[in-house]
């Protein structure tokens, strides 16, 4: 059974996503971009590590680059993306609670368990407090999951981010570093909410023209996020050499446990296999682009390192888990 599709994907926040209501060519372009994205981001990180001086002084551009990505997200949205909230409020509410409880909690636990330095601990926690993002919608589609639920949870979690991410970060990361939650609210509003609303308005007013370029949006998003990763890695190139293994372990645990617990939450709530698969990706995949931007602006380049690593790894793990889930779903559907 194919997953239900909506008129448009909800966001391209931290990696490319398919405009599922667009043309078949646009959908294929998005899937190709998702496949290439981890390699592109890995190459960008290697470039930042090898040539850190080439990106000196670029850190102030990260919020603007994120704004470009969020504007692309708004261009992929239509009012139909919000219908799922009205049709299935219980399932969407469960997805939001699971997302904003499991990932922040895991970030805090992993930071304590691994004895991370204050900067890295705050960075891991900030990744956990970010809204749903990256390629969760397209990965849900490839996993034969409930795309409509995925879109609804992702959309609402992004819209609510200015109200939820700062206080959660203050609560959980405040013991490690000072957190200016008020300033963080303003930054999320400017770099996330305003660009998304602007993109949505452009789509509503000039939909015919936007539809013609939907296939290019995933690539623009991928290139922009790659630039963010290169800048973040370059800013903490020296620290990476001593902390890379520990950061990867933290990211591996954070993402893997998030995927497993998200799926488990869907099963526990008896949402059914397709919705449980969607829950796995909506919980375990984060808007790491936003986390990197906030960490750079409010903490340090080193605190942004977990977000940069997460941006690469969760796309790799998401693709692998989606392939496995798709295989299991096809096998279970055989007579």
From TrEMBL:
Gene3D superfamilies named in the record: 1.20.1530.20
Membrane topology of this protein: Multi-pass membrane protein
Pfam family, one: SBF
InterPro entries (alphabetical): BilAc:Na_symport/Acr3, Bilac:Na_transpt, Na+/solute_symporter_sf
Subcellular location(s) per record: Membrane
Transmembrane helix among keywords: yes
Chief site of localization: membrane
Region (Disordered): 1-25
Keyword terms of this UniProt record: Membrane, Transmembrane, Transmembrane helix
Transmembrane segments: 33-51, 63-80, 92-114, 120-140, 147-168, 188-206, 213-237, 243-266, 278-299
Protein name: Bile acid:sodium symporter family protein
Biological source species: Streptomyces atriruber
